[in-house]
Design goal:
The complex is a heterotrimer.
Chain A (H helix, E strand, L loop, with lengths): L1 H10 L2 H21 L15 H8 L3 E7 L3 H19 L2 E7 L1 H13 L8 E4 L1 H9 L3 E2 L7 H6 L5 H4 E2 L2 E2 L4 E8 L1 E5 L10 H10 L12 H15 L11 H18 L14 H9 L5 E4 L4 H7 L7 E4 L5 E11 L5 H11 L2 H8 L17 H9 L9 H6 L1 E2 L6 H13 L2
Parallel strand pairs in A: 1-2, 1-3, 11-12
Antiparallel strand pairs in A: 3-11, 4-11, 5-6, 7-11, 8-9, 8-10
Chain B lengths: L3 E10 L2 E11 L4 E5 L6 H9 L6 E6 L2 E2 L10 E4 L11 H11 L4 H14 L15 H13 L5 E5 L7 H18 L3 E5 L2 H7 L2 E6 L2 E6 L1 H6 L4 H6 L4 E2 L2 E3 L4 E4 L2 E4 L12 E4 L4 E5 L8 H5 L3 E11 L2 E8 L2 E8 L9 E6 L5 E3 L1
Parallel strand pairs in B: 3-8, 3-9, 6-7, 7-8
Antiparallel strand pairs in B: 1-2, 1-4, 4-5, 9-10, 11-15, 12-13, 13-14, 15-21, 16-20, 17-18, 17-20, 18-19
Helix pairs in contact in B: 2-3, 2-4
Chain C lengths: L1 H27 L1 E3 L9 E2 L2 H7 L4 H33 L5 H13 L2 H15 L5 H27 L2 H8 L4 H12 L1 H16 L3 H7 L6 H11 L2 H32 L2 H11 L1
Antiparallel strand pairs in C: 1-2
The chains are: A alpha/beta, B alpha+beta, C mainly alpha.
Chain lengths: 422, 354, 274
């Protein structure tokens, strides 16, 4: 390289030099053109029987992309689930931990270039699902092709039909459920507040020791909606127009509440923890008295990993707390759709759902309909021992409030920020 | 031991001509100098010979072979640069060895030759040192040794004495003359110092503004410069105004001369020059009553305006009517400021120049 | 006075470098460290065990990361040394413009560049391949390489190369025996910088590698974002140690090469002549 350059620069006139540079650039481009990728055909899945799909998927590799920030989940995916797939179907499951926003960027880019994808399954929900579906980034509908979906899942259940108010329409299969909980140390707080008024008095009694991550942080945003539900009820939001003025009026009393609460918050509400992670660390360090989670089993994991005090416990409001589901979708350009379908089907099996429910593995709530389960399957779930500090499944499900439709989420966050951050 | 021939070399930089139609021939085994003020194109000429700079026009022959499109490394024209350019990451020995390594000379031969070369330039003890650890004079020797070891077709020395103090400079000068005589290597030396050129070279080319003004032996250049500029370059000089009158004689400010001999070809546009040491001064009266003037004959009367004693020489400024000339005498001189003196110059010492 | 001041500054500087490292080391083995306590209450090895267990993905990805960064470093040097030389030594039309253009990746956000190149790479079949990741990593480091080598060549000039050539060295020999050793300090500093920037790339790696190419930061960043302090600290610790080792390795290797090409002859002549 350098020799050529050297000689060329010495021997050539200036115009020739410019030409030479141009030619090198052109040649580089052609070189890349030459190795452009080839197109592949995909199978017509709708006409295949499940047996044919199983056969087709055997020996293939399935790539599952999802949030990778939790070691327990990563280990469970790489361990139990991957082993199941290998043993039962000779499928190599490749779990690719990442952040969900990035996968949408990637799919969007691939869509524009009409490229074959690398992701066969993506862990998705809410707005990301809405964005992906409305941009045609998802394959579907596919859920009714899955035997386990048809056998064990109640397809009429609101939490299966809707994801943050968006109709799922078979473009994503339920994966698990979570519910918002607040976590207190029982030793420090023997009678944790179970409604917004009690929370206010508690904050007044311990000024500076309560806080939450400010919206638009995901968990902070859920906390704000929970307070809103507790004050003005949740029903009106389910079919509310996504108009800022309408929403503003509906949640006005809740905004008044936050203004009253503000001076008793950590640093008098002048600033909030940037992330949930920071709040967790503050709680672990004893700096604040409450931490929250959009995962009803987080507390037992944190206790067993030693981060939270053993006397930590989950608390929900008397009127209930927001719960939502998370799902699995198949990208429009998945290379191995049959494999993806087989893996998703297996994830909807009682064995995998029960393993997921086990707090030693993950502690995520199952999505299978109890009424549809066979007796022996039900026993599998009953054998799962609940972790320390966590609330049992039935308590949670009885006090479970639906999420607001996704378009309202950013509007509520916006109004909260306008009122409380200045 | 190769001859070098430059034919009608032209070089332009940014549209300006830096070398103008240069033609130069250096005989086998000869050492010549290119003399001129800095920026006159001497170093560029060396680079053109070595192939580091390409001439826009003209041809170069080394030993009769055309150097057209021959890359630097195949020409065998080695430049020893003014700033030595020793490779700082190599020892003195490795620096000298470099050219042989590039030619893939076997190691055993290389070692032997480097040892010989170190001895030849008197640096037996410095072989393992790095360039940063030796003196300026030693660096110069290393640079020369490094050039000599590849047995160059022509050795090109770029201002080799300019960074040295007087004592070292004289030492290096005789060192180079010595080497050149021993090895009979065709050598071109570039310098701005006339003394370097006069002492070392059998021929000198004087360059101004990219132009070779005159090329000849030191004597020719000194005694018969073909221009005022060349004459000036070799030392102080007086310009003597003159008139040619119908009588066929030349009436100069310092006397009347017959128009023959040196002056036979004198044309009206030519200049008449005289070096200070060619001016004879004598007293009007030597004290014994005899006028020296009668002995010398042709002379004019002037008055000493200023005397400068410079050790081995003494300089006088003498006013002859409105003309002021400079003369010099060996020793401290016998005249004082304000004294009247006779000024005389032999016809043979007059320089005619176009 | 001046001495003690510079000593104090040196101490402050070393502390500011060592303390964060110590903190990371502490957190990587800390299970619980309640707020006012000076020492951690409970220590554990969950983080480091996860990384170092046999068959761990962290180790695989670490090897991938090192391989990619080594190639990026070599390729970038191969591009930026001649490029910097051209910009530092030669005059040609449009030089000023090119000087600005090559710095553009510093000004334009790598996200924007990455998104733009993503489409092109898809068409060329370079996405999801290690080659694609290597190529995209080269983009943000080109300006550093060009900048460093332009300055170096402006500083050292081409005098020594000229000398080498008149002594009979061909272009390649000149480059190997003179140019490279002369710019060695630049190669070491540019090489280290390129290696580190490539080694810590997250977004571009994910975008172009698409998760098929799993580098160490791809596993590390989700933990940092999720706030699992022990995992994040463990990964960071391994990241920093490996990066430091790689840098020392690069320097050592280059220095070794450097001395091989100059020192041996020198040693010989010392022995023989003294």
């Amino acid at each position: 390289m350098s020799i050529i350059w050297d000689n060329a620069m010495k021997k050539m006139s200036s115009t020739k030099k410019t030409l030479l540079i141009g030619m090198i650039l052109l040649m580089t481009m052609f070189l890349f053109m030459a190795c452009a990728g080839e197109e592949e055909e995909t199978l017509d899945l709708e006409t295949m029987t499940w047996e044919e799909i199983l056969e087709e998927a055997e020996g293939s590799e399935v790539r599952f992309y999802g949030w990778g920030g939790d070691q327990a989940i990563n280990d469970w995916m790489n361990g139990f689930v991957a082993e199941q797939m290998m043993e039962k179907y000779d499928i190599t499951l490749e779990w690719v931990p990442m952040n969900i926003d990035e996968i949408l960027n990637k799919l969007q880019g691939e869509k524009q270039a009409a490229a074959r994808g690398t992701a066969d399954m993506i862990w998705i929900n809410g707005e990301n699902f809405f964005t992906a579906k409305s941009n045609d980034l998802l394959y579907g509908p596919f859920t009714e092709m899955l035997p386990n979906f048809n056998n064990y899942v109640n397809s009429e259940d609101v939490e299966v039909k809707y994801d943050f108010g968006y109709p799922t329409e078979g473009y994503e299969a339920p994966f698990g459920k979570t519910q918002f909980v607040m976590i207190y140390d029982q030793e420090q707080t023997p009678n944790p507040p179970t409604n917004h008024e009690a929370l206010l008095s508690y904050a007044k009694a311990h000024p500076g020791e309560i806080t939450f991550p400010a919206p638009p942080d995901f968990t902070g945003s859920v906390f704000v909606r929970n307070i809103i539900y507790d004050i003005v009820g949740h029903e009106q939001f389910l079919d509310m127009e996504a108009e800022k003025e309408v929403v503003r009026e509906a949640i006005a009393p809740a905004m008044e509440y936050f203004k009253e609460l503000k001076p008793y918050l950590w640093r008098e509400g002048e600033t909030y923890p940037a992330t949930l992670a920071q709040l967790e660390n503050m709680y672990a360090d004893g700096e604040v008295r409450m931490v929250m989670a959009y995962n009803s089993n987080l507390v037992s994991q944190r206790i067993s990993s030693g981060m939270f005090p053993e006397t930590s416990t989950s608390v929900i409001f008397d009127k209930g707390t927001v719960g939502n589901g998370h799902f699995i979708g198949v990208p429009f350009n998945s290379y191995n759709r049959v494999g993806a379908l087989v893996v998703i089907n297996e994830i909807l099996s009682p064995e995998v759902q029960a393993s997921k429910y086990n707090p030693d593995n993950w502690g995520d709530l199952p999505v299978l309909d109890n009424d549809k389960l066979r007796e022996e399957d039900r026993e599998i779930f009953e054998r799962v021992e609940l972790g320390e500090g966590a609330l049992p499944q039935d308590v949670l499900l009885e006090n479970r409030l639906p999420e607001v439709p996704a378009p309202l989420v950013p509007i509520i966050d916006q109004i909260w920020m306008e009122n409380l951050l200045d | 031991m190769k001859e070098v021939l430059l034919q009608n070399i032209n070089k332009f930089y940014d549209g300006e001509e830096t070398i103008k139609n240069l033609t130069l021939k250096v005989e086998k085994g000869e050492m010549i100098s290119l003399l001129g003020p800095s920026g006159c194109g001497k170093t560029t000429t060396l680079k053109i010979i070595a192939g580091l700079v390409e001439a826009d026009q003209g041809k170069i022959f080394i030993d009769g072979k055309s150097m057209d499109h021959l890359p630097t490394q195949k020409r065998g024209a080695v430049i020893v640069f003014q700033d030595h350019r020793l490779f700082p990451h190599m020892t003195v020995g490795a620096n000298i060895e470099f050219g042989l390594r590039m030619k893939r000379v076997p190691k055993s031969i290389r070692r032997k030759k480097v040892q010989e070369m170190l001895q030849f330039v008197g640096l037996e003890k410095q072989g393992g040192k790095f360039p940063g650890q030796i003196s300026g004079g030693q660096k110069q020797r290393v640079a020369i040794a490094r050039g000599l070891i590849v047995d160059p077709a022509v050795l090109l020395l770029d201002e080799p004495f300019s960074n040295l103090d007087q004592r070292l400079k004289e030492e290096m000068r005789s060192f180079i003359v010595d080497i050149q005589r021993k090895l009979k290597i065709t050598t071109i030396l570039v310098t701005h110092d006339k003394e370097d050129a006069l002492i070392t070279s059998s021929k000198i080319g004087v360059m101004f503004d990219g132009e070779l003004k005159q090329y000849g032996t030191p004597e020719e250049l000194y005694e018969a410069p073909n221009s005022l500029a060349v004459a000036r370059f070799f030392g102080e000089i007086n310009e003597i105004p003159y008139k040619t009158i119908d009588d066929g004689k030349i009436h100069t400010a310092i006397g009347i001369y017959e128009k023959d001999g040196r002056l036979a070809e004198l044309e009206e546009t030519d200049k008449l020059l005289l070096r200070p040491e060619a001016i004879f001064l004598s007293k009007e009266d030597d004290g014994s009553g005899n006028t020296i003037r009668s002995e010398i004959g042709n002379s004019v009367l002037g008055k000493v305006n200023h005397r400068t004693f410079a050790g081995e020489k003494t300089y006088y400024e003498v006013d002859i009517d409105s003309l002021r000339i400079r003369g010099s005498v060996i020793g401290k001189g016998a005249f004082q400021t304000g004294e009247s003196v006779f000024v005389h110059a032999a016809k043979e010492s007059l320089i005619v120049c176009k | 006075m001046e001495r003690s001041l510079s000593r104090i500054l040196l101490i402050i500087l070393s502390l500011s470098l060592i303390l964060p490292l110590l903190m990371i080391l502490m957190w990587s083995v800390t299970v619980s460290w309640p707020f006012p306590e000076i020492f951690p209450r409970e220590l554990g090895l969950r983080g480091l065990r996860t990384i170092f267990q046999p068959g761990s993905r962290a180790l695989d990805s670490l090897i991938t990361s090192i391989r990619i960064s080594v190639f990026v470093t070599i390729l970038t040097l191969a591009i930026t040394i001649p490029g910097g030389k051209a910009l530092g030594l030669y005059e040609f039309p449009g030089k000023g413009f090119i000087k600005i253009i090559v710095l553009a990746p510093l000004i334009v956000s790598p996200v924007a560049i990455g998104m733009g190149i993503h489409g092109t790479f898809i068409r060329l079949g370079l996405t999801n391949t290690e080659l694609g990741v290597i190529l995209i990593h080269i983009v943000p480091v080109i300006p550093y390489g060009i900048r460093i080598f332009t300055n170096i060549f402006e500083l050292v000039g081409d005098q020594l190369e000229e000398q080498g050539k008149v002594l009979g060295a061909g272009s390649f020999q000149t480059f190997m025996h003179i140019t490279l050793p002369t710019i060695m300090p630049g190669i070491i500093s540019a090489g280290s910088m390129i290696f580190i920037i490539s080694f810590s790339q997250y977004f571009l790696t994910f975008l172009i590698g698409g998760g098929s190419v799993q580098t160490f930061p791809l596993l590390m960043v989700p933990y940092i974002q999720s706030g699992d302090r022990m995992m994040a600290a463990s990964y960071s610790l391994v990241f920093i140690v490996v990066a430091l080792l790689a840098l020392l390795g690069i320097e050592k290797m280059l220095r070794l090469y450097y001395s091989k090409n100059s020192g041996i002859a020198g040693v010989f002549y010392t022995k023989n002549s003294d």
